[in-house]
Amino acid sequence: MAMVAVTAVVEIIVVDGGGSRGDGGMVGTYLHDKQIKAAMGIKITSQGLEHAIAGTGLYVVNPDDDLEDVKEATMEDMRSVMSRIDKSGEGVCVQASTLGSLEALLEFLKTPEVNIPVSGISIGPVHKKDVMKANVMLEKTREYATILAFDVKVTPEARELADELGVKIFIADIIYHLFDQFKAYIDNIKEEKKREAADEAVFPCVLKILPNCIFNKKDPIVLGVDILEGIAKVGTPICIPSREFIDIGRIASIENNHKPVDYAKKGQKVAIKIVGSNSEEHQKMYGRHFEIDDELVSHVSRRSIDILKTNYRDDLNMEEWRLVVKLKNLFKIQ
Known about the structure:
Layout: E1 8-13, E2 18-20, E3 35-37, E4 41-46, H1 67-82, E5 92-96, H2 99-109, E6 118-123, H3 128-135, E7 146-150, H4 156-165, E8 168-172, H5 175-197, E9 205-216, E10 221-233, E11 237-240, E12 246-256, E13 259-261, E14 263-265, E15 269-275, H6 279-283, E16 296-298, H7 302-311, H8 318-330
Parallel strand pairs: 5-6, 5-7, 7-8
Antiparallel strand pairs: 1-4, 2-3, 9-10, 9-16, 10-14, 10-15, 11-12, 11-16, 12-13, 12-15
């Protein structure tokens, strides 16, 4: 039985000029045509074409051409694509069927409205090696351990490995659908992180005690207050800066017009119940440890501020962030 050498085949469209069999740079055998012209769709078979990248240009090297200049021209498209990779090394991996599709996806991802960093690119089906590349992000930024696969297939082996490692693969043949899937995934992760950090997140607030609204003086302390600045939330630790920063407990509940609410914002007048979380706070009493002229302030810390920055940045407006800075200085936090 005779052994037949099998070479790779590529399909191309001639967009400019033409070529003939034997032209430099056009290595291979034509089945029917000795010459090609613009707008023809053809197949070329040759050694080494298995490394060809879909969407890149194929150039004819004429006798008078400088081979190095032609090589430079062929690499220009790839350099343009590679320049989109985030220099920090953090970002999603993107995969597309052709170079043109990849460029379109990268252009979309870098727009200010989208702004998704890219750490790696590839063309063609998603294989196990692509999953391993994306897996590196699990140790850096979990949400970026993701492959955005645009108009390509995912091999069963790659899908199985991704499920095993925790790498997410999103597939779509429309760029906007790909973005919608990824955004929904990111939003879910953000909400999950918020829930995990909720007990340590301290929102900034400054409260003024309302006259004739002292409903209970000692644990639980129940007062009517005016929200002078910021956001008062259930769970917020409260202290009295004017009384050597004594802690009096955490806000256990808030009522607005006799209805329970989770938070109250600047300008609202509400009733709050403050419950001590340790023996010292249980002893704190209105009229003995603080008076009506003492402002109640949320007790922020370096840790709580960092949590706000990481997980709740969009939940505070500029005025509320300025209050965070003000309280940071008040508590002498570095």
